[in-house]
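Below is a complete specimen:
___
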Amino acid sequence: MAVDPTHHGYRRARSDAQKQQRRSDILQAARAHLCDVGFEGFSMGPLAKASGVVRGTLYLYFPTREEVLLALYLEDMRAWLEELAGITEPGMPTEGFLRAVFTSATRRAVLMEIAPHVTGVLEGNVSPESFAESKHLAAELVDVAGRRTALALGRPVHEGAALATALFVLMIGITQALPTPEIDAARRPDPQPLLGGEEPLEAFVRMGRWMVEGSQGGATPATITGRTPASGRRGR
C-alpha cells in the first residue's frame, strides 16, 4: 500500500534521526515491494510511490535499485545471524545445526531472493563508496557467522569463516530449486534435474554433513548417508 506523502511523518527529513527513520521506512517499503514482484521486477518508481516520497528524494537515499537491494540483503543477513545465535548452542550435533541454519534462513524470503545476485549484479552496480562499505560489513558478518559456526560444531575458530561461507553457498545453490510460499514458485527452476527428487532440506543436510565431517576419517557423501552409488555410475 502506498504511503500518503502528505502524512506528517513524511515531511522533509531534516535531523539525522529523521533521515535515519526515512531510510528505514524506504527499506520497509522495499521489502514489501520485493516480495510482491521479485528481484527482476523490483524498480524505483513503484518503490518511491510505496514509500510516500518523490523519486528524487528516493535517489538521495539510494542512487540505484541495487543500492536498495544490497542494503536489504545486509540488513536481513545481520538479523538472520542474530536469530541463529538464539537457536544454536555450543557442541550441538552437526545435523541439528544444519537443520537450524537451513530452516531459519529459508524462512527469510528477502534474504533468499537477493543472495544469488549479490556478487555478480548488486556489487557491480553500486558506487565505489557503497561497494567498500558493503564489503566491510560483509566481512564483519562472515566473522560473526564463522565464530558461531565453529562454536556450534566444536571446530577451531580459524576454520569457522571458511566453513560458514561454504555452507551458505551450498544453501543458496540448493534453494534456487526450492519453491516457497513467500516467493512465486514460477520464478524457480524445476528442482528435479538438480536434486533428483530429494527434498532441499535433506539435500542440504546430506551435503553439509559431508562438508563438516568429510575431512574427519575420510567420510564421503555415501558413508554419511548410508547411500551407495547408483549401479553403473562411478562415485566422485
